[in-house]
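[09:14] KT: can someone run the structure on this one? pasting the chain below
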Amino acid sequence: MASSLASPEKDLKCAGCNEKICKENVVFTCSHGLCSVCLEKRWLRGVRKCPKKSCKKRSPSESPIINQALKMACRSFLQKKNGRDSTQSQDFLCPQHQEILQFFCTDDQKVVCVECLSQEHQMHSFCSIKKAVSDRKERIQARLEDLKTKQGKSEFHKVKDQIESQVQQIERQIKSEFQELKQFLEEEEMSRITALKEEENNKSWSVTKKIGELHKGKFLAAEISRLKKMVKGDGVTFLQKYKDDEKSAQNTLQNFTLDSGALIDAAKHLGNLRYNVWEKLKDICPHFPVILDPNSANKTLSLSEDLVKVTHGQLQDLPDNPERFSVQPFVLGSEGFDSGIHSWEVEVGNSTDWIVGVTKESVKRMETEISPENGIWAIGFSNNQYSFNNLNPHIRYHKIKVQLDFSADRVQFLNPDTNEQLHSFNIISSEKIYPVFQACNGSSLKILPVSSQKFD
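[09:31] RB: done, structure tokens below
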């Protein structure tokens, strides 16, 4: 079939572009012709010569006639080439001109006929349908390959893996925390039982000593015998001896009287036991006013297990979840505020590139520029200088206190050692406000516990 069509297809191609089958073959006086589209383009350029290289005769006619027989032959050939009869080809006819859709307008991304090209698409770029199909199939194939690649490790798979990793890490940390609590309680229990046993030993030894003295001297038996003899006395002699014997008896019995506090001091061991243990427990269980949100952390940031320290480092393979900052190395606090007064201290130490402050909840995570106009109110240190006006540029601050006051719609940055104000911003926002931290170039920031902070 292909070989039988090859010769007529060559004969029916336009002499001007030699690419497409003529739909309206226009004939010059020299009997050579070309399609009406190419003719119109040549006419616009002022070219009136025959397109055949072997002819090049000039056409005296301003409007060469259309070869109707050749037009029908071209249409018949195209219908046969597509393997469709006239009824089937109706779906591929231009609804406006009833001509076969043969070209693709790249400007309008639309399939058009030859009449469309000569009218509303006259100055547009176009190509063959075959080329348009080929180009778009290549794009689809590229997308297909990309999807096949992602199918093996899609973002959803990455999220699932991250969830499993988070659960394992959190579970491990919970067990570790409770193990420390258990160890503390066990040690506290042993300490209190040891104190109880020591008191028991001391007081038991004292009582045992008294009992031993009683038996050793047989004091009670001797005293009983003496008192029996005294009872047999009479008269003046009895009364004289009674006074002396009474003093002797008191001195003797005084050695065998119970001392004060002979019993175990139960109140000391049991009184407010849980509260007293809790008081000591606070020393090993610090409270942090701000906890970092790992799901918001840029992929270059690493957080400590207790979520109070952030360090800038190598890029990590983490999911691109909507909460995560993808441009700036930011991480948010886990809790936002919309009323009251809140403060926290950040240990910046000797870090050389950092930012601390607050931001509104709707801050853009993908394209963040640090400015109050974008909902970020912060100060920082970079290139060996602070972002705020500092009268003493050579002073290095190792801690920064952030105080957020909704009653004054203001955030202050203070030196916690002197309570000196370093900078402040007025905040205008109807949203929740979150603590925000940035660490760059290997810097680290750490939120300090409340117990170590100084308050006015």
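[09:33] KT: thanks! The chain is about 40% helix and 20% strand.
[09:34] RB: yep, looked fine to me
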